[in-house]
From TrEMBL:
Domain spans labelled ATPase F1/V1/A1 complex alpha/beta subunit N-terminal: 9-65
NCBIfam families noted in UniProt: PRK04196.1
PROSITE patterns noted in UniProt: ATPASE_ALPHA_BETA (PS00152)
Function: Produces ATP from ADP in the presence of a proton gradient across the membrane. The V-type beta chain is a regulatory subunit.
Keywords: ATP synthesis, Hydrogen ion transport, Ion transport, Transport
Name of the featured protein: V-type ATP synthase beta chain
Residue span, ATP synthase A/B type C-terminal domain: 354-453
Domain ATPase F1/V1/A1 complex alpha/beta subunit nucleotide-binding as annotated: residue spans: 131-349
MF terms in GO: ATP binding; proton-transporting ATP synthase activity, rotational mechanism
Length: 479
């Protein structure tokens, strides 16, 4: 028999305290009936003896300490699931907001997910093609991986997220693919930008959207990524789909966590964030992966903004510990008009080596990536030297690398809205490497160089695209 409690002991921000509660459970859902008959939902977030602290999703305004009626529902928060979710838009708590009505649920599932035994995991292999050269070639996204994007204030991470959603696909034919997209704490114009972009690109039929606006309750912000991951797990493990989960902005999520942690009176950790921030983020990130025997997979791209571009800030710092690499966006590249402004040197994908090469992408992929990294790293050394002695005093070899660096940024990194296949990306990489003297390519063996290296073709190729480059190239090559 369900008990109904009348009255509240305390109201503090988004939290209420209820005394003399029997048999309450952590994360249990609670229903409130206000004096005017309207209903609100909440969940138990803390239990101390017979006292329960309850987090209210819709806020505590208009709640009465004397007349509010409370009923514990005896179950955790669940999300209604169906394949009909594809093409639909939900709020952060999983309620439809696209005007198309409720979905017909095939089942409901706890938004906190089910623990996945590490022994039952399959090692991630095969890649997801994003259509973006700097990612596909140099920081390849592997199916089942969690690969965050580290951004900063004013950088185009939203545009990059949209481009990934529009372009992403798996290589094998006949495999179903879906994207679950969650936005947390975004403004109305950004939310509309996401919806409009996906609709105009014609990709909404395989996208599930969860939108939490900046004026929505902060509690809903902490639910949005869990709802998104629950939907992804359902599509992956019950409908055998390969699902890419993109959620932005993790920093907004962590700030919401900090706010309600402070409301509970918890002892703060670094920069005021709760001491359990690491385990809370891990409870999200570790829901990526592939289970043994499952045909589907869950891959994650969490996007976070680094306050003051500080990579030692708790949010990027802890994220880096849990995830398998990162994609870093660079303000300097963005100021040069390069999109996407991916700084490839501090970016990496730790699982890349096991999901590329023959049978996955192309046999020369790893070699091309290694040589591009090495050449571009040398460009940075030459730039540092240039700031001291000036470009006119550089050696002929260093001038060639400077030419390579400019072409690499303008043609490889800067691709705008273009969607490139892995073949096009690798061929462009060879074109850029062919600008350099063959003797400078010390990460490539002669067999590959014989097959792909063509200096004259590279000069002609870039000359056709940018007429003022060809003279510079010839001058540099001739010393």
């Amino acid at each position: 028999m369900a008990l109904q409690y009348v009255g509240l002991s305390e109201i503090n921000g988004p939290l209420v305290v209820l005394d003399h509660v029997k048999n309450a459970s952590y994360d249990e859902m609670v229903e409130f009936v206000l004096q005017n008959g309207s209903k609100r939902q909440g969940r138990v977030v803390q239990i101390e003896g017979d006292k329960a602290v309850i987090q209210i999703f819709e806020g505590t305004n208009s709640l009465s300490l004397k007349n509010t009626k409370t009923r514990l529902l005896g179950k955790p928060m669940e999300l209604s699931l169906s394949k009909e979710m594809l093409g639909r838009v939900f709020n952060g708590a999983g309620k439809p907001i696209d005007g198309l009505g409720d979905i017909y649920a095939e089942k409901s599932a706890d938004i906190n997910g089910q623990p996945l035994n590490p022994v039952s995991r399959t090692y991630p292999q095969n890649y997801i093609n994003t259509g973006i050269s700097s990612i596909d070639c140099l920081t390849t996204l592997i199916r089942g991986q969690k690969l965050p994007i580290f951004s900063g204030s004013g950088l185009p991470h939203n545009q990059l997220a949209v481009q990934i959603v529009k372009n992403a696909q798996v290589a094998e034919e006949g495999q179903e693919f879906a994207v679950v997209f969650a936005a947390m704490g975004v403004t109305n114009d950004v939310a509309n930008y996401f919806r409009r972009s996906f609709e105009e690109a014609g990709v909404m039929d395989h996208v599930v959207m969860f939108l939490n606006l900046s004026n929505d309750p902060i509690i809903e912000r902490t639910l949005a990524p869990r709802c998104a991951l629950t939907a992804a797990e359902y599509l992956a493990f019950e409908h055998d789909m390969h699902v890419l989960v993109i959620y932005t902005d993790i920093t907004s999520y962590c700030e919401a966590l900090r706010e309600y942690s402070s409301s509970k009176g918890e002892i703060p950790g670094r920069k005021g964030y709760p001491g359990y921030l690491y385990s809370d983020l891990a409870s999200l990130y570790e829901r990526a992966g592939i289970a043994k025997g499952a045909k589907g997979s869950v891959t994650q791209i969490p996007i976070l903004t680094m306050p003051n571009n500080d990579i030692t800030h708790p949010v990027p710092d802890l994220t880096g510990y849990i995830t398998e690499g990162q994609i870093t966006l660079d303000p300097e590249l963005s100021s040069m008009g390069i999109f996407p402004p991916v700084n490839v040197l501090p970016s990496l994908s730790r699982l890349m080596k096991d999901g590329i090469g023959e049978g996955f992408t192309r046999a020369d992929h790893q070699d091309v990536a290694n040589q591009l990294f090495a050449a571009y790293a040398h460009v940075q050394d030459v730039k540092a030297l240039t700031s001291v002695i000036g470009e006119d005093e550089l050696s002929a070899a260093d001038k060639k690398f400077m030419t390579f660096g400019r072409l690499f940024e303008q043609h490889f990194l800067n691709q705008g809205d273009e969607n490139r296949s892995i073949e096009e990306t690798l061929n462009l990489g060879w074109m850029l490497l062919s600008v350099l003297p063959r003797t400078s390519l010390d990460r490539l063996d002669n067999k590959l160089l014989d097959q792909f290296y063509d200096h004259e073709k590279a000069v002609e190729y870039f000359g056709l695209q940018e007429s003022n480059v060809i003279k510079e190239l010839k001058d540099a090559v001739n010393g």
